[in-house]
Amino acid sequence: DNNGEFSFTYKLGPGRGRLFELSAYGDNWSGEFYISNDLKINGDKSIFIASGSTLKFHSGISLTLDGGSVLEAYGNGQDSVLFTRNGTYNWYGIVVKNNSMLLLDRCKINNSSYGIYFDENSQGTVTNCSLNHHTRGFYIVRSAPQIEYCQITNCTEGIRLYHAYNPQSWIKEDLNNIEITNCTSVGIIFIDSSQFIKNLTLK
């Protein structure tokens, strides 16, 4: 939803058809999508992306959660959920803001400016995911998502934390079992932040 509209392309096999229903709540996405306009999910909307699905974004295009919306994407042992670019140039990335929530497990996020950008007052849990070839793998601003068992590779910056603070970090670590490899500038950078980190590996 980008001010009421967005566009995508769904790839069908020969002789096949598909009916799409994009409702205000409870959308279920499955398959391969080519997204050419910024995709914004607003308000009380909830999107579920099935395992084995692929979302390919045109250059500079973002996926933004705003105003309390929720995005869930769960891969499984055989099929991850893939977020990547369509073409040569990077897409913008996933942006979570204004009390929205991102829930990812066994997903792959590739080739963007910001892999996942948790903006102020956003929420989320990201587990067992890989982030590859980004300017910043995770960018966390004034929020405290739970990130566990993730791999970040071939980025300029692996994780940037800016005024990120979790008053309950004594209960559960914010960043746990994260491996950061081959980042050309810095693996992790703290700017006025206080996060509880456990089992961080830099290579």
TL;DR?
The chain has 203 residues and is an all-beta fold. It has strands spanning 8-10, 27-29, 32-35, 39-41, 46-49, 54-57, 62-65, 70-74, 81-85, 91-96, 101-105, 107-118, 123-127, 130-141, 146-153, 157-162, 175-181, 186-191, 197-202.
State the helix count: 0
The counted number of beta strands is 19
Strand content: over 45%
How far apart are the first and last residues' alpha carbons, in Å? Answer: 39 Å
Order of helices and strands: EEEEEEEEEEEEEEEEEEE
The description of the largest β-sheet is:
19 strands, mixed
Cα gyration radius (Å)? 16 Å
| Global morphology | globular
Give average pLDDT, whole number: 85
Give helix % range: under 10%
The structure class reads mainly beta
Q: Point out poorly predicted stretches.
A: 1-5, 21-26
SSE blueprint:
Layout: E1 8-10, E2 27-29, E3 32-35, E4 39-41, E5 46-49, E6 54-57, E7 62-65, E8 70-74, E9 81-85, E10 91-96, E11 101-105, E12 107-118, E13 123-127, E14 130-141, E15 146-153, E16 157-162, E17 175-181, E18 186-191, E19 197-202
Name some characteristics of this structure.
disordered N terminus, 203 residues, 0% helix, 19-stranded mixed beta sheet
What does this molecule look like?
This protein has no helices and 19 strands. It has 203 residues and is mainly beta. It has a 19-stranded mixed β-sheet that branches. Mean pLDDT is 85; it is low at 1-5 and 21-26.
